[in-house]
Structures are given as structure tokens and as C-alpha cells.
Amino acid sequence: MNPRFRRLLIPGLLVALLVVVLVAAIAGRADGTTSPEPPVDSTVVSRIDDSRIGESSGLAVSTRHDDLAYTINDSGNAAIVYAVRISTGKVVGTTRVQANWLDTEALALRDGMLWVADTGDNVNSRADAALYALDEPGRGDGTAVPLRYPVSYDRGPQNVEAIAVHPDTGETLLLSKGPTGGLVHRLPEKLRESAKNVATATSWTAPAFTTDATYASDGRHVLVRNYPVAEVRDAETWELVRTDVLPDQQQGETIAIEPSGRSYLIGSEGGNSALIRIAFDPEAATATPTPEASPSPATLPSPDGVRVSPYIIGGLVAVVAIAIVLFFRCRSRPS
Questions:
Q1: Residue 265 backbone dihedrals phi, psi, to 5 degrees
Q2: One digit per residue, pLDDT tens: the chain, 335 residues?
Q3: CA nearest 319: which of 64, 19, 44, 95?
Q4: φ, ψ dihedrals at 233, nearest 5°
Q5: Does the reported pTM lie above 0.85?
Q6: Which of 156, 172, 204, 237 is deepest in the core (most CB within 10 A)?
Q7: Cβ–Cβ under 8 Å, residues 198 and 163
């Protein structure tokens, strides 16, 4: 065996093994049971077919205006909040916000204020993450000058794609997005415009690839979604109450409780994306917790939406096993 090849083989094997471990960890987090639960009952309410909304990355349902929700586009788009009629998916208002957004990822509503989270950070390097607050715009077109609250994190930059604001206390949670799970951060009670508002990491964790979150209407639970599932968490203890397996979406990004507190909406990036309604029973949310997650590895996408198949994992394992056998066979022969 060529000595140079032998020297390169061991690092190559280690890299391959690390890939296997990472992919297996991602799939293993999703595969909490041997027989996956079917998706929850859901209804496609409407489709957002406006060409201006191709990357819906935040969703908030109005409690002041019937049949109205707000959405924003992901990074690389104009600073515009779109008002959408839920029943039809039609845009019924646009608000141009005087701000330089970089990577907007989530929305929340409380007491007539719309919160926009410009907190996306795919490479964990931003020093300018911030929350923006503006009066709820309602229908019609207009402009808005928001309040800007700079955000930093006690554990360094984070890629945050989920915000949840308590309907009564205003407590604000920021949930980071990671391949094997994220952190749940809590912002200070009083936010300042003139200085960084440091979000402190709690002992709570978010599921892999968390894309959005919302408090229930009564504040007793937090619903946290990633691509395939929505976890219902106890807002006081963060214990897992239930896991809803969501219907397939192109790239599921959003979740928002509806004013009745008896249902929530989920949405997706992509053109002609569906607004899907799922029933939520606050009383049933006190039932015995289910396993940590329900879907099989085949239902878990990677960050760019490509689904991770168990066959890929098996193939990687086979490749590494063959390489190890060949290495030891060659090692036993003279060079």
C-alpha cells in the first residue's frame, strides 16, 4: 500500500465517521418511535398566490381585525409587511417599513404592536440582530417608522428564526435554529433602543431546525415548529406535552395561534404557499406527554429542504465499513 495513501486514509475515515454521526444524530432526534404517528387533521384554508411573497418566513394573526394575518419575506427582500386575508390568501395591505432588514425570520403580535425579528444568522456572525416594533397596520397601504431594539446573546451570536411573545406578560423568547437542536433565550423584561438587549440562554432546548414558535392564547403553552412537527410545550416547565406531526409542506417556516385559541395556522416558503389550519385544544394540552418526536428520519429535511433518508445513513455506514476493511487488509501486506 502506498505510504502516502495510508497517511491520507485515516483522516478520510475520521471525516466519514463524523458525517455518519451527524446525520444519524439528526435522524435519531426525529425518530422517537418505531411506528411514526400520522399527520394531524388539517385544512388548507387558502393559498398566498401573490408574486411579491415568495419566501413567507413569519406569520402573525390579528386579534383586532377579523380574517387578517401578517407575513414578511425572508432575507434579500424589501422591508415590507404584508396583510393577508386568511380566507382567500389575498394581500389586502402593504406597509413599507423604514428599516434596513438583513434576515427577517419571525413575527409576533401583542397589544396592537407587531414585532419583527431581524435575527436570522446562518453563519452565526451577526452583530446587528434586532427586533423592530410597529403599530399593527391593518388593511390598506402605508409606511411605518418602527422602534428598533438591538439584540445580542450571552453565549455569542445565534441563528434565531423563532420568536414567541407572552400575550399577558410580554415575556419574549428567542429560539435558535440548529441541526441537532437549539437554545431558548429569554429577553429582558424592559427593552432599550440605545443599547444591546442581551438574551439569556435558559436550560430549555428547541427541536432540531426550529423555524417558528407562538404562545397559545392563554399563555399556558408554547407551540414550537420545525419542518415536520409542532411541539406543544408547557410554558412554565417546558415539559413536552404533545407532538403534532404536520402535513408536508415545501419548506414549512411559520406557525401562529388564532384568536379563538382553538386552532393555529402554519405556512411555508415558496410561491402559492398554503395557509393550513390545525385544531388546538388547550384542555387536551394538559394530557400525558408523548415521546420527544414522532416522525421517521424520512420526514426530516435538512436546512435547505432536502429530506434526510435512512437509506443515506445506511449507505454512509456501508462505505465507511468497506473502507475500514480495505485499510486493515492493505496494512497486513508489505508496502
A1: -110, 145
A2: 444 444 544 555 444 445 444 444 444 444 443 345 789 999 999 999 999 999 999 999 999 999 999 999 999 899 999 999 999 999 999 999 999 999 999 999 999 999 999 999 999 999 999 999 999 999 999 999 999 999 999 999 999 999 999 999 999 999 999 999 999 999 999 999 999 999 999 999 999 999 999 999 999 999 999 999 999 999 999 999 999 999 999 999 999 999 999 999 999 999 999 999 999 998 887 654 544 443 433 344 444 343 443 334 444 444 444 454 444 454 445 54
A3: 19
A4: -115, 145
A5: no
A6: 172
A7: no
